[in-house]
Amino acid sequence: MLKTYTWPHYAYQRPPELGQAAVRRVPLVVVGAGPVGLSAAIDAALRGLPVLLLDEDDTVSVGSRGVCYAKRTLEIFDRLGVGDAVVDKGVTWNVGRTFHHDSEVFAFNLLPEAGHRRPGMVNLQQYHLEQTLVERAARLPGIDLRWRHKVVGVTQNDALASVDVETADGNYTLHCDWLIVADGARSPIRRALGLDIEGKVFQDRFLIADVVLDGEPFPADRTERRFWFDPPFHPGQSALMHREADSVWRIDFQLGWDADPEAEKQPARVTPRIRALLDSQGYTDIGFELEWVSVYTFQCRRMASFRHGRLLFVGDAAHQVSPFGARGANSGVQDTDNLLWKLQLVTSGAAPASLLDSYSAERTFAADENLLNSTRATDFMTPKSRAAKVLRDAVLSLAEELPMGRALVNSGRLSVPALLTASPLNTPDADAFDGWMLPGAPLDDAPVRAAGRPGWLLPHTGHGFVLMHFGTPDAAQRDALDALARGAVPLHPLVVMPPGQPGPADLPCLEDCEGRVARRFDARPGTAYLVRPDQHVAARWRRFDASAVRAALARATGQETLP
User: Fold this and answer.
1) Among 309, 382, 431, 439, which residue has the fewest nearby CB atoms (within 10 Å)?
2) What are phi and psi of 290, to 5 degrees?
3) Would you call 140 exposed, middle or buried from its count of C-beta atoms within 10 A (0-12, 13-18, 19+)?
4) Sign of the C-alpha dihedral, residues 266, 272, 274, 277?
């Protein structure tokens, strides 16, 4: 038990499949009830796809583990119905500060521009997030969440996947159309099947300490990330400190490859390090208690493909990165955001199974981007040679004196969504646009009014394909929108009107009350955007043309033409 948290224990239920002669077949099984597996199951249920979720444990994660959740992930959590709970419980921050010795050399703001619903980052211990997701899953019909059901075997053929499950009452087998593998970095399923995972393991060790402070080291309105290179309290190494929920603080100390992990986790070694950090910052009067301690090494690796027949790998089972940059859990949740709408179309027969290949193509691209940034950050923080360290220290010294050096400082480039500009699902621009809302980009949020009530743009997307039309469509365009809304893959119209201008009463309509939507989308009257169910741009035009939209919709669903 932690001082600030008591783990829930969820009830095991005897599986109804025991003693049945016939093997039950279900559309979808998800293995692993961590943040990624739970997000996948919730997304499936919200899209009308029944899901059976298996986990070998009966509680949430031990220790804070994943902590930082980025703006794009928070927007996905909004769609899953947990965004407010995560933001309200967590610690919001946008500013990060980096120090060399005791001098500040670099600072950044993750959200320098106003007009976004969600902050750049929220810190929340993983156990809080998982409990919130479990409670959300329990409220949704269509999710069969089974605790202490351990997957012990997986096979597949062209027609189905077969899952062998071990329980206290005996073993049973399930057949499923699709299997989402979210069983973590060590992934027993991936290992048992001998599937590849390639990359780099870094020869360094870091200590994580979750600490409950009995005072407030920073003003309450300055919730910021602090990173130190070679600080006086931990010379020759690096350290990181930021706040979590319930007055818990996450502190990381670089230890070096030769450190003894078991010895370093002992309070007699951890406590002096934390005391030295607090004293060096002038917080000599603040006491603390250790909440959780771990020592870890990290790696930057991924599978060559995230799809293997009817098996779809997500999160740490598919890719692993170092924790600096908060790219682990965020990229895993974004995996599920990319996957589930495609899986729903495939299972309903509205799209071919080959659409799932685009999941692997898009998310391996995103993983490579994360791996590159994570590797660069790790190499900067933990130089692998004397020459590399001399160069790193020179950059830090330069950054103290000149702004030009600050851009070279790398204490972890923080998680941002991938721009899927090379996706085969995109329709390239035929018209000229400014800005970054190009095909493949996730939508920017912005304040709007709907039926006179203030709100935000993103909640009006994400339930299916959306055609955003700026200004009132003419009669022919309205007829075309009506036909597209009744298609095999329904296209939902969304009219965006300038500030103060009423829209058509018979179509879903938003007022761009501050003009930010038009500015961020470089839109003028007649502009149209085709938006995917994961809130990424699929195509855009200066004027809505039904045949062009139909062709782009077919391309975005992996088809030559729409039926």
Assistant:
1) 431
2) -75, 135
3) middle
4) negative
C-alpha pair distances (Å), 555 with each of 112, 134, 530, 560: 35, 35, 11, 6
Dihedral sign from CA coordinates of 526, 531, 536, 541: negative
Could you say which DSSP state residue 236 is in? T
**Of 84-98, 215-229, 362-376, which has the strongest mean pLDDT?**
84-98
Whole-angstrom distance, CA of residue 95 vs CA of residue 229: 18
- Write out the two tokens for 165: 């499950």
Please, how many CA atoms are within 13 Å of residue 39, restricted to the half-sphere of its CB? 28
Contact 201, 299 (CB under 8 A): yes
| Residue 137 CA neighbour count, 13 Å, CB half | 29
**Nearest-angstrom CA–CA distance, 498 and 503:** 9
CB atoms within 10 A of CB 252: 18
∠138-334-145 over CA atoms, to 5°?
Answer: 20
Rounded Cα gap, residues 556 and 173, in angstroms: 35
DSSP states of 200-220: EE-S--EEEEEEEESS-SS-T
Q: What CA–CA distance (Å, rounded) separates 313 from 331?
A: 12
Domains defined for the chain, CATH in brackets: 24-91+119-197+300-358 (3.50.50.60), 447-556 (3.40.30.10)
Residues 6+ apart with CB under 8 A from 88: none
pLDDT of residue 321: 83
Taking phi over 0 as left and psi of -120 to 50 as alpha, with beta for the rest, 48 belongs to left
Chain-centroid distance, C-alpha 245? 19
d(CA 334, CA 205): 28
d(C-alpha 15, C-alpha 168), whole Å: 10
From the list 445, 452, 447, 464, the residue with the least C-alpha distance to 530 is: 464
Crossing angle for the helix pair 546-556 and 475-485, to the nearest 10 degrees: 30
Q: What is the pLDDT of residues 96-150, one digit of tens each?
A: 888 988 888 888 888 878 899 999 999 999 999 999 999 999 999 999 999 999 9
Residue 397's pLDDT band (boundaries 50, 70, 90)? Answer: confident
Distance CA 229, CA 172 (A): 53
What is the β-pairing status of strands 51-55 and 143-147?
parallel
Residue 287 structure tokens: 């006491």
pLDDT(164) > 60 = yes
Q: What is the chain's Cα-based Rg?
A: 25
Q: Which two tokens stand for residue 26?
A: 């279900």
- Closest to 29 in 3D by CA, of 255, 310, 431, 226: 310
In angstroms, rounded to a whole number, what is the distance separating the alpha carbons of residues 127 and 35? 9
